[in-house]
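User: I'm designing a mutation panel for Large ribosomal subunit protein bL21 and want to avoid disrupting the core. Could you give me a predicted structure to guide residue selection? Please restate the sequence first so the numbering is unambiguous.

Assistant: Good idea. Sequence first, for numbering, then the predicted structure tokens:
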Amino acid sequence: MYAIVEIAGQQFKVSKDQKVYVHRLPNAEDEKVTFSNVLLIDNNGAVTVGAPAINGASVEAKVLKHLKGDKVLVFKKKRRKGYKVKNGHRQYLTQIVIENIVVK
């Protein structure tokens, strides 16, 4: 059984006991979170598609920890002009574990 759910503006394919890295959530560590914007559920071949979301369906998760992602280097250059800029960026992430997919 898996579901496609929208978390923090992005869509994720999740299943039970799966760990997922999402954009930083405002919840504290070890706190339960419920995502109600479930777009699709596949229950052993029985597919339910929402329009746009499935009424009564939700995904329950637990926040494991907050962390920062790997550094991404951004390098800009314009040839023959002497213009070079090097920047770095580290995204703030939250690791969650999916505890349950609820279907009504």
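For picking mutation sites, this is relevant: The first strand starts at residue 2 and ends at 7. The two ends are 14 Å apart (CA to CA).
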